[in-house]
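Example 3.2
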Amino acid sequence: MASVTLRAGVFVALLLLLSTPVAVAAPEGQLTWGVHTTLVPAYFDPAETIIGTSFMVLYGLHDALVKPLPGKGVAPALAESWTVSPDGLVYEFVLRKGAKFHNGEPVTAEDAKFSWDRYRGIHARTLKEHVAAVDTPDPGRVRIRLKQPWPDFLTYFGTVTTSAAWIVPKKYVEKVGDDGFKKLPIGAGPYRFVSFTPGIELVLEAFDGYWRKPPAVKRLVMRVIPDPSTRLVALKRGEVDIAFSMIGELGDDVRRTPGLALKPVYPSTHWLTFPDQWDAKSPWHDRRVRLAANHAIDRPAIDAARTGGLSRITYSIVASTSDFYWAPPAYAFDPARAKRLLAEAGYPNGFDAGDYSCDQTSADAAETVMGFLQAVGIRARLRPLERAAFNKSLADRKLKNLVQIIAGSAGNAATRLEAYLASDGIFASGGSPDLDGLLREQAAELDRARREAVLKKVQQLVYERALFAPLYDLAFVNGVGARVEESGLGLIAGYAFSAPYEDVKLKAR
C-alpha cells in the first residue's frame, strides 16, 4: 500500500510540474552594431522601401504577413498560413491570433490591406499591375486576387525583394500621418522604437508581446560609423559588438585579434553598368567597348584585396544562388585584348568616360575598377553617393556614363532581369525589344522547364552582348565581438544583416 501511495504522489507531482508554466527569462543587456551606412527615417516605414538596407530596421520594428526566416525563403509570420486557389489566381492569408502592435492594438486584416494600399516602394508598380484586388473577408483573413496566374507573386511579395507584405497599424498612421509615423514608428516586430539621432544611432527595445519568441537581448543599438577603420577600433574596444563591412586588411586584423571572429555572408551581387549604351552616339553603344571593359578588370585581384578571396566571381548580374541562374563563361583578364578592342572601335588612345557613380560604401572597389579601366585607356572620375541618394538617382535614371551597382540576392533570375534589364525596369537605363519580349514570355509561363529555358536564354544574350561588366557575389565580411553568442548573421540565407533580431544572443556572464 505504501508503494502505491508513493507512486501516486510522484505522479501527482509530475502533473503539477508539467502544468506549471515555464518561466521565460526576461531580455537582458545591450547589443550594439557598428553600421557602415547612414540610417534614414525612410527605413522606418515599409511603404517606402527601395533598397535592401531598409530591412536592417524593418526586421526589428515591423513584421510581415510572410517573410524569410531561418530555413525558409517564405515563411509564415503575421499570417500563420496561406492557401492558393487551383487556378493560381487567389492567395488567402489567415492572420495569427493574438498578434499585436507595440501600442497594444491587434493586427487585423484591415491593417494588412491598408499597408498594401499605401505601399509605394520598389516594384510597387509591378505588384499592383498584377493584382486585381485585395479583400478582407473578415478581420482574420486577407485575400489577394491576381489578374492572371503569376508564378513570381510570392517571390515579389514574400521575400525581401519588396516590403509589400509588411504591416503597419492603420489607425495610428492615419492619426499621425506619414511624417509623424517616421518620427515615432509603431510596428508589430520584436523590438519597439526608443529613439533616433540622425547620423548617430537608432535605439530599439525588446517588445514582450512578440508572437514568435521573446527577444533575448533587451536593447539594440545601431550606431552609424561610416569609416571602416573607426568601426574596427570600436569593435576592438568593445564599443560595438558587431561591425559591418570589415573590408581588406581590416578583415585580416579581425581574424588575428583574440576574442574577435570574422563572419562572411553573401547578400549581394555587384556589377558595372553602362547607362549610355542605348545611345548610338555613346562609345558604350559599341559592344567592343563594353567587351574591352570586361577584359580590363582583374576580378580575382579585386576580390583578394577587398574580401580576402571570399567573394564568388560569377560573371553574371544574377546571384549564383538564385533560382534559374545560368553560369556564363569567364571573361579573361586580358588588358592587351581590351586595348585592341578599343582600337577596333575607333578609340586607339582610349576616351574620357566621365563620372563613375557608386554607393559610397563601395568606393574602394570602384577606385580599383577605375584603375584597371584607366590602364587600357578608359578614364573616369569617381562620384560616390550616400546609399539612399544613389538608389533614388538610379531609379530616376539620373546616373550616366559608368555606374557600379549593388543588388541584393533576394528573388530569382526573373526579378533581377526585370528590374535591371527590361526597358521599363525600376533600375534599368534602357532595353531592347527582343529581350523585353522574352521577359514578358517567361513572366506568364507556368511550366517551370519552359520558363527556365527562356530565362537562361536571356542571360546568355546578356553575356554575348556584354551589356554589363559583372564583378562578383560579394562576401560581406563582418566582425563579431567576444560578448556575442549569436550574431544573427547568416541565419537567413542570402540576407545581409543580423536577423531575426529575436534570435540574437549575448553570452552568459
